[in-house]
Amino acid sequence: MMLIPTHHFRDIERKPEYLQPEKCVPPPYPGPVGTMWFIRDGCGIACAIVTWFLVLYAEFVVLFVMLIPSRDYVYSIINGIVFNLLAFLALASHCRAMLTDPGAVPKGNATKEFIESLQLKPGQVVYKCPKCCSIKPDRAHHCSVCKRCIRKMDHHCPWVNNCVGENNQKYFVLFTMYIALISLHALIMVGFHFLHCFEEDWTKCSSFSPPTTVILLILLCFEGLLFLIFTSVMFGTQVHSICTDETGIERLKRKNQPREHTGSWQSVKETFGGDFSLNWFNPFSRPCQPEIPSDKDMVRQVTSLSDTETMEDPSEETKDEDSVEVTDE
């Protein structure tokens, strides 16, 4: 059972019929643990393909334009290993962020029988999402692209074709970090390569013609600079959200009403999977698995009915959420 801060209160309908739980279809039989999660969204799939294409383009330019033609074999081997390792970790993190269930709430569990089984007491309330017909735990939000309610949803990212939630935020953070690192690494190598080619004959510093080499390097420089800025900003905002235990959606809806936070270090450990270790940077290592919400976790306790009557939320979430409350009447 959860205690809701007053700023989370919404305009609550006192009539249980408002939920219309009889319109909900019972949830399907849960699939096996580890079942692959994939969102069939055309825009998201296209963005994911573009992401892989851009990384592979950078791989092509770095290897076949700068490193392989270089006469400094030690320089080529070291930078080739570092760049390929970072690129592999970036793509692996991208796959994990895209194919991991971000924390979807069971769909269709707001049935009449299930709500009656909760045996709500006076002052207790449950919220229902009319879009996916699920009872929403605290801090869950509905995603119109995934068509599900996601626990601790931060935002929906088309570049990973998935929501960023409590189960895959670690992979998204690693993805932005590794993309920023390979972008920075590529920009540094482009700078050294230009200096090298200016000092020597352009025909000797690349296996391509000088005009082709210049075009490929300029495109890589533009791509690296753009993604370095974008992913660095995303990485910073995600780390800030984790340390403050406040998602992007919660920050937008806060409106100068601060919410209670947990310890920042504890939140970081829960996101990345325990105490600090190399597994924090490993996209194949799972974060701390959150406890499966019980039926009691779906029931929220209001501190006073008078507060519930007066507090209203003018945001769009008010239109998307319904609730049922048991009173002393």
TrEMBL record:
Keywords per UniProt: Acyltransferase, Membrane, Transferase, Transmembrane, Transmembrane helix
Class of this enzyme: transferase
Example of a GO cellular component annotation carried by this entry: membrane
Entry annotated with the keyword Transferase: yes
Keyword Transmembrane helix: yes
Topological category with respect to the lipid bilayer: Multi-pass membrane protein
Spans through the membrane: 45-67, 73-92, 171-194, 214-235
EC nos: 2.3.1.225
Domain Palmitoyltransferase DHHC: 128-254
Ranges where the record places region Disordered: 289-329
UniProt biased composition (Acidic residues): 309-329
Catalyses which reaction(s): L-cysteinyl-[protein] + hexadecanoyl-CoA = S-hexadecanoyl-L-cysteinyl-[protein] + CoA
MF GO annotations: protein-cysteine S-palmitoyltransferase activity
Main location: membrane
Location(s) in or outside the cell: Membrane
InterPro entries: Palmitoyltrfase_DHHC, PFA4/ZDH16/20/ERF2-like
One Pfam family hit: DHHC
Family (UniProt): Belongs to the DHHC palmitoyltransferase family.
Domain commentary: The DHHC domain is required for palmitoyltransferase activity.
Protein name per UniProt: Palmitoyltransferase
Organism the protein comes from: Gorilla gorilla gorilla (Western lowland gorilla)
